[in-house]
Amino acid sequence: MPKDADAFRTIGELSDQLGVAQHILRYWETRFPQLQPLKRAGNRRYYRPEDVALVERINRLLNDDGYTIRGVQKVLAGKTDERPAPKPVDKAPQLALEPGLLADLKQLRAKLADALSA
User: Fold this and answer.
1) pLDDT tens-digit profile of 76-86?
2) Which residues of the chain have pLDDT under 70?
3) Domain regions of the chain by residue span
4) Where does residue 13 fall: left (phi above 0), alpha (psi -120 to 50 degrees), or beta otherwise?
5) What is the 3-state secondary structure (H, E, C) of 64-76?
6) What pLDDT, on a 0 to 100 scale, did the predictor assign at position 86?
7) pLDDT at 52
8) Is the separation of the CB atoms in 69 and 30 below 8 Å?
9) Of the CATH numbers 1.20.58.480, 1.10.3720.10, 1.10.1660.10, 1.10.10.10, which one belongs to the domain with range 9-77?
10) Which residues contact 35 (CB under 8 A, 6 or more apart)?
C-alpha cells in the first residue's frame, strides 16, 4: 500500500524511491543547507514533502543535467539560472566502413609500422 503524497518518508523509503544510496542523501545534507529533514530519536530522518521535492531536484540537477555540487549550490542559492548543461559532443563520430576497408587499413598500418621500425 503506497504512502500518501503528504506523508513523511524515511531515508530508506526516499533512497528506494530515487535509486540513490542512503549515504549519498546524508552527504547531500552536509552540502546543501536547504535540506534539513526532521530528526527524531536515534537520529532517524523523516523527509517532509518539501524535502522530498528538494532531494528530487538535487538528484535531477546532479545526475540528469550534469551539474556539479558547487553548481547545484549556486542554483539553489539563486545565484545562477537553472539551465540544462550542454550535452557532451562525441568528438570522433563513428563512420560506416565498407566490409573489406577496415582489414585493408589494418594491413596498411602494419606495413607503415614495419617501415618505420626498419
Assistant:
1) 998 877 665 56
2) 1, 82-95, 97
3) 9-77
4) alpha
5) HCCCCHHHHHHHH
6) 60
7) 95
8) no
9) 1.10.1660.10
10) 28, 29, 51, 54, 55, 58
Direct distance between the N- and C-terminal alpha carbons of the chain, in angstroms, rounded to an integer: 75
pLDDT of residue 105: 85
Burial of 96 (0-12, 13-18, 19+ CB in 10 A): exposed
How far is the C-alpha of 36 from the C-alpha of 18, rounded, in Å? 18
Is the distance from CB of 67 to CB of 75 less than 8 angstroms? yes
> What's CA 94's distance to the chain center, in Å?
26
Neighbours of 102 (CB within 10 A): 10
Answer yes or no: pTM beyond 0.90: no
Q: Which of 76, 41, 40 is nearest to 55 (CA)?
A: 76
Cell numbers at residue 68, please? Answer: 556539479
- Note the helical H segments in 10-96: 11-18, 22-31, 49-59, 69-77
For residue 59 the three cell numbers come to 538528484
